[in-house]
Specification:
about 200 residues; alpha/beta; Dna Topoisomerase Vi A Subunit, Chain: A, domain 2; five-stranded mixed beta sheet; two-stranded antiparallel sheet; 7 helices; 7 strands
Length: about 200
């Protein structure tokens, strides 16, 4: 690295600040990452920068399930191996990754992109409930699995959805209580998630 390419202290400080904004990255971790990037080759940092830009520019929401995808519809929605009569409702796209990793579910999904939370000003119009109800209109779905997080907000969301979906005659189940209250799906282990999916109960 020649002297012209050495970043100023302000440049390093700015990078640390931005890394510190990422979830789960404290100040010490942000500093370690910043100095790791500083020592990395130009090729490594270029590949990282391109990957970040690519994920922002090339991904979109699936028009069916609202998962993040680079092809529409997403691979799950267009797969002939998936059961279209079952739809599992999750709060966030990363919850799909957690459930898919267990290989215990073969239906499709719907991503709400949030949960009802009056204390944070998030109401029923702020998450993707309208799109869900549109999906359920044609009668092809026979079971909806509520896989909202076992938190106060997740419970409120599940109760509201159960009321809406039951009213149109579709069976509503929820993940079994193998999931401890207050945790999030993406952090649950495979065995717990598998048991929760297999032991789901009618709402």
């Amino acid at each position: 690295m020649n002297s012209d390419s050495i970043p100023t202290a302000d440049a390093i400080s700015k990078l640390i600040q931005e890394l510190n904004k990422l979830p789960g990255i404290g100040l010490k971790s942000a500093q370690r990452l910043a100095y790791h990037l500083l020592r990395a080759s130009d090729e490594q940092t270029k590949l990282l920068a391109e990957a970040i830009l690519s994920v922002k520019q090339k991904t979109k929401l699936c028009s069916v399930c609202l998962n993040i995808t680079d092809a529409d519809p997403c691979s799950i929605c267009r797969s002939p191996q998936r059961d279209p009569s079952k739809v599992c409702i999750v709060e966030q796209p990363q919850d799909i990754l957690a459930l898919e990793h267990t290989k215990s579910y073969s239906g499709r999904y719907h991503v709400l992109h949030g949960a009802i939370s009056p204390t944070e000003g998030i109401g029923t119009e702020d998450i993707r409930i309208k799109e869900l109800m549109e999906r359920l209109k044609d009668g092809s779905v026979t079971e909806v699995i509520l896989a909202s997080n076992p938190t106060l907000e997740g419970e409120q969301t599940a109760m509201y959805l159960n009321k809406l979906i039951s009213a149109i005659g579709i069976k509503v189940t929820r993940l079994a209580r193998g999931l401890p209250f207050g945790t999030e799906l993406e952090y649950a282990d495979d065995v717990t998630l598998t048991r929760a999916m297999e032991g789901r109960q009618e709402f």
